[in-house]
Amino acid sequence: MDATPKPAVKKPADIQVLHCLNSECRGLLAYEVDSQNVLYVDLAWTAKVDGDTRYFPCPQCNGRNIVEEFRTDKGQMKHRVVRWEPARGNVGSREADQLAAERLDLMPRTVRDKLDRVGIKLHLEQWQRLPMAERERLRDLPCEQADDVTRYATTVEQLVIGLSGQPPDRIKPRA
């Protein structure tokens, strides 16, 4: 009979990737939690703060995964993700894109259609470098009649040359 003690059997780690608590989304969040959604490495300090509420935003549904502080049986302070709330105004990803387009962070569909009509490729980076007044102008300028199309193309070309010193990329105009 061997009297050497057997090594203790390690309990398997109870670590999993945190998923959005929205049952319709379940998007991955860049945090590790245990089966009780307690943060494995306490990164609660990285949570966004809105008043007294701390949350991890979901990049997929834009919802808020609420983080709350609690005390363990041993008296340690820890954090866990306890519930999901929709984003303010219940903005989903399609609605967020639409909102960004309305604020002109993104290029609105109307501008993209006009650029296709005149045969100019305007990159998002170029669009975002334009002053807001010029973005509004490109959104609002007419581009239906032949004279409008010419005027619109000239305006875009002058703006891009003013920004970069180079003319914009050209594509085949769409009728």
Mind telling me the C-alpha Rg? 26 Å
Coarse structural class: alpha+beta
Number of strands: 8
The chain-level mean pLDDT equals 85
Could you give the topology of this structure?
Layout: E1 16-19, E2 28-33, E3 48-50, E4 53-57, E5 64-71, E6 77-85, H1 93-102, H2 109-118, E7 120-121, H3 124-129, H4 132-140, H5 146-164, E8 169-170
Antiparallel strand pairs: 1-2, 3-4, 4-5, 5-6, 7-8
Defining key terms:
175 residues; alpha+beta; 4-stranded antiparallel beta sheet; two-stranded antiparallel sheet; 8 strands; 31% helix
Task: Describe the overall structure.
Helix 2 (109-118) packs across helix 5 (146-164). It is built from five helices and eight strands. A hairpin with a 5-residue loop joins strand 5 and strand 6 (77-85). It has a four-stranded antiparallel β-sheet with strand order 3-4-5-6, with no helix packed on it. The chain is elongated and about 95 Å long. It has two domains: 16-93, no CATH class; 104-170, no CATH class. The chain is an alpha+beta fold and 175 residues long. The mean pLDDT is 85.
Question: What's the quick description here?
Answer:
With 175 residues, the protein is of the alpha+beta class. The protein contains five helices and eight strands; from the N terminus they run ββββββααβαααβ.
